[in-house]
Amino acid sequence: MSEALANLLNEKRQFLPPAELAADANVTSSAYAEAADDRLAFWARQAAQLTWSKPWDQVLDWSRPPFAKWFVGGQLNVAYNCLDRHVAAGRGDKVAIHWEGEPGDSRTITYAELHQMTCRAANALTGLGVTAGDRVAVYLPMIPEAAVAMLACARIGATHSVVFGGFSADALTNRIQDASAKVVITADGGYRRGKPSALKPTVDEAVANCPSVEHVLVVRRTGEDVSWSDRDHWWHEAVEQASAEHTAQPFDAEHPLFILYTSGTTARPKGILHTSGGYLTQVAYTSHAVFDLKPESDVYWCTADIGWVTGHSYIVYGPLANGVTQVMYEGTPDTPHKGRFWEIVDRYRVTILYTAPTLIRTMMKWGEEIPAGHDLSSLRLLGSVGEPINPEAWMWYRQHVGRGELPIVDTWWQTETGSMMISPLPGVTAAKPGSAMTALPGVVADVVDDQGRSVPDGGGGYLVLREPWPSMLRTIWGDDNRFIETYWSRFGAGAGGDAEAPWIYFAGDGAKKDDDGHIWLLGRVDDVMLVSGHNISTTEVESALVSHPSVAEAAVVGATDPTTGQAIVAFAIPRGSTDTSGEAGEQLIAELRSHVAKTLGPIAKPRQIMLVPELPKTRSGKIMRRLLRDVAENRSLGDVTTLQDSSVMELIASGISGSKSDED
Ligand code: 6R9
Hints:
By secondary structure, the protein is of the alpha/beta class. Helices cover 31% and strands 22% of the residues. The strands form 8 sheets. An 8-stranded mixed beta sheet has the order 12-11-8-6-7-14-15-23, sandwiched between helices. A hairpin with a 5-residue loop joins strand 24 (505-513) and strand 25 (519-524). The protein binds ligand 6R9.
């Protein structure tokens, strides 16, 4: 059999769960067998943990794949499940959110208070004419109002579309336009790296090109001056003066809950659509099972931004559905000092920490003496998400954050999957550093070869999901065909041929099974770059470069970077008349870097841009990024036999000297 993906790493270390955690774990090994025995009955039991206004008639309708319906006929209110039912059960005084602002200010919000804030916001949105099914864009810093805005939308059946606060006006415009959002919720700004970072001017610039937007709600966070128009409303006037009485109406299990844009491999972002009942069922279950949440005693902290799916599922919906106390932090980990995270863990006695490999690598760079200077004894469980975690980083995390004894759950999932899919169970699994281990109960994952055949243990290939799952994406907003093409057309029935074959979801990731059958994620099989935990497509950055008048063509690759995981390295072909000699070349590079940052947001700013006379292409015209990666990482060139014009690489090498930009 030809190998779809190499299996190079051989990691033999394995760590048993601590006996104490295993003895008291929410979920034991029997869950795997129960789910395997009757998967739909298993998910129905998890759904029954929620409060439904009307029970479902059918667990799964898969009669029109790949369009799934879960809990057909059932009705519930997502916000009710996250708030009202806890208050009704007498837990209103329990802290929902310990919020800490970057400048050091803090707020403590109980479930009763969060409920009231959400009711007011729901009434305010209704007052602005928002009704069920309308789209609301949310562009906020990490402040409690971000969670309130999302829950208020859920409460009235409006579909939220959260846009990461680091995105540019262009990116925001595209997303508002694609969803035809009626209202935008933003703030004057937030605090980042020790100073106010404005948001409102970006919204002003964006909505100038968004005729669908009728109102903009503005939270006052920094108190900086903002320009104002007739469509703007202060949150503290509209929301805080609205009534705190609001009765949540039930919505259909398949009612749209949110759209979240992911850039994917093309420049046009995909609006991933999630619905209500199945989504909440799986985020609530996985929070309970993988984080082993004990609402009575745990203090949970997920360091993700709310603009990432992790913030949706594991700051807002999963933890709140479980009624746990959590920490929410506004700022960066090194403001005002590099021990800020550990200070927060100590201050709030955090028990469960969920963060990203890029952060762990940053902490490694800063040195182990920094966590060692804080009391981390409250921690009992660590989690990781967003990229493959290198075994070294995993070991460092366990050693220096986890006292050499805490379990680490490496959770693989995607915006599209909505919830965790592959992860250890902390009281069950003997985890291996760097492996996400096995599919969670109720999830059917596999690694297949090019032909869609399951690879044997020890083999590598493509990660697929063989059965529908409750929190799966339902479509790409406004583009069912693209949904089918992107996720369902690589293998199985959707790939053509056998119409009787099952429908198979292709995740776009490479993976391998080790000799014990455990799954190791190996990154995207296409060329998406993962920078600081954010997926950035090559095409988007290339399109941004080419939109500059001096650039004719561009290719970008991800090159290994000790801090951000990968850094963007771009190759650009200047237009004929462009002066690229000496200082003019340096100037152009600087201009291109800021152009990309302006077009796509600072996260997409290339670390390095090389002005080259040509790009390596295959005979069919596709750019061979593999060779560019060799150049970007200063390696000798790999196989060039499929190169259309082999002199191209020499041309590129000659164009590079002196054109590297400075690091910033
Ligand atoms: C939750 C989230 C999804 C992509 C995914 C994969 C990568 C996420 C991972 C991981 C290896 C893990 N990814 N978690 N790779 N191990 N534990 O990250 O969603 O932003 O949509 O990214 O991230 O490549 O396909 P999203």
